[in-house]
Batch of 2 targets.
Target 1
Amino acid sequence: MKEQVIIKLQQRGVKIDDLVPVLYELQSPYLPNLTYEKCKDNILAVLNKRDIQHAILTGIALDELAEKGLLEEPLLSILRNDDSLYGIDEILALGIGTLYGTIGSTNFGYLDKGKPGIIKKLDTNSGKVNTFLDDLVCAIIAAAASRMAHRHRDSNNG
Ligand code: MG
């Protein structure tokens, strides 16, 4: 299923290599020996988790249904307009952002607010419905950052 998730993300305009620099910027102040390769490894490790795969497939499916006009009102307009009072996109994403501990929610909030790199691109992609996708991308990066932080601490403590 991991390959299908990666293909699905790609179809929606998100390559794994787009997430790497965002994760690097987020974590490099804390991890001096960080490399792009390490970032990519952690992103791919996060995508191994079934909970995360399910959340991604669910969120993207809703984005696609909204894009094709296949949802009923009022949900259709809510998703198409990325209604700021909706919040279910964030709830779904937060669920996966915190799979590696609560530090994930801090990272998620930071990414959601600052919208670095690919996240900004998704947020301003006209004609596409990325209501769930932008939060999912934040959550994947947040989870990868948390995974990295916990592993770093573990390896330092011997
Ligand atoms: Mg959203």
Target 2
Amino acid sequence: MDFFRIEGGRRLSGRTRIEGAKNAALPLMATCLLTDQPVTLRNIKPLADIANMGRLLAEMGVDVKPAASGVSLQSMDENRVHARYDIVRTMRASICVLGPMLARRRRAIVSMPGGCAFGHRPVDLHLRGLEALGAKIELRGGDIIASADRLKGDTVFLGGPFGSTVLGTANVMSAATLAKGRTVIECAACEPEIVELANMLNAMGARIQGAGSPRLVIDGVDELGGIDHVVMPDRIVAGTYAVAAAITNGDVTLDDFPYDALLATIQHFREIGVHVDRVSGDDPMRCTVRVTSERNLKPTTITTQPHPGFPTDLQAQMMALVCVAEGNSVITEKIYPERFMHVAELMRMGAQLYRQGSTVVVAGGHKLIGAPVMASDLRASASLVLAGLAAEGETIVNRVYHLDRGYHRMEETLNALGARVERLKEEKPSAAEGETASRGAGMSAAAPQFMQDDR
Ligand code: EPU
């Protein structure tokens, strides 16, 4: 298992480009199940989750091939409809094959995703939406078994206790593209990844209106064609590198920065004393920004919300940042009330955090001190790396395979900006030696076999 050794206290400066969005790419990859034509996606990195989705699609009879900076997918065998537990358990986003497979193959068996490191994550809204379009759904032996003749458009309400659902909207919207008649999705997710999916489906021949608003209107078509599509930049990666610049009081230029997808985050940065200045680029989803910060950061109050509110996927990173601000910040998690695995680990580094239910009070102004810490999910890992950059002394972040699910060789990006982060491999302890580490081994998570790692 790889871990990071971080020498803290180095100011970041320089320039880097934001990679393509994993959370956009996963449902985009699943659209290949809606057509027998090739779907080529570019600007995606060989992340562990992308590899898992490739493996899953290959099991679903899809020919998965490398393409320049991406992947090409073509559905060949439409009789293969079982997404097995072995793969689904590695990645919850596997659920996004359900809608597309059901819509075109008329049958789908998808292992029910299990629990997740940050709490209960049900899929009831996905199932409710597909049932509204006429699917028959039963749960048997841990599998969701869905079948339908041609799906029929209807009005679907996708609101749940924590707002809408991103992948649920992706599933129902994708399925509705091939349904008979008109589907209206009320309380649809408004996330930029949904807009991206709708735009790509429209370019494949779908008829979707309203993407980016809570009301989607989808007029079903008989078939969809192929596509060659460049995936949007990753707003969470962009926010994470902006925090890296700010937490080290650095000066970093970020290219392909999806400014318009991060307005709530940028507003909080402003309150704290972090400047995100647009330098160039007419496209507000791919511009160049310069991130600088004031020496003494101010506290803030953050509540995570569905888009366009502050994203839950940046909560942990922002918590690391306000640890070094002067004064008390308050962070409330409204999407996943249990998403706080980073709290205890940040406290090991000297952060003064007080949690009450889904709220954490951060008493800022205390020095972070390097310590061994344990990554427990993707964004919590990012938060610990960020804290390590600002901490005095050496931080060891264990289990960075979580980080590798969503950031492409983060240590290399940070080192190019002046950080000192080493990826090391934990060796199996021998009876005589106990645990040791070998330098430079395992420089990144294994690249998916179907993609070229441009290392
Ligand atoms: N929910 C339900 N029922 C459902 C589905 C969701 O009650 O059927 C609840 C969830 O438990 C949660 C809320 O609704 O409280 C929102 O969940 P959502 O379905 O929107 O999450 P998701 O689509 O499964 C995506 C991202 C997550 C991100 C969330 C929220 C992908 C692959 N995943 O998950 O990303 O946190 O939206 O924005 O797109 C990450 O990248 O680290 C990550 C976890």
